[in-house]
Amino acid sequence: MPSPRNVVVVVPFLNEAENLPVLYERLCGVLEKEPEAFEVLLVDDGSRDGSAAWAAGCAERDPRIK
User: Fold this and answer.
1) For 9, how many CA atoms within 13 A lie in the half-sphere containing its CB?
2) Rounded-to-integer distance, Cα 51 and Cα 19, Å
3) pTM (2 d.p.)
């Protein structure tokens, strides 16, 4: 049986404060069902709507989020 691989998802965002929580829930919901370990890299492209603060808070709560 092959060993599990790691999955990295890179998510660039700009002013997506409303959508990031939805994306996080759906993305993690799918990835948690897979055998591979995963991490999600959230990359702020200069947001001014609180997206960066949400991403930072999410990374503090969930070690899979960077």
Assistant:
1) 16
2) 9
3) 0.86
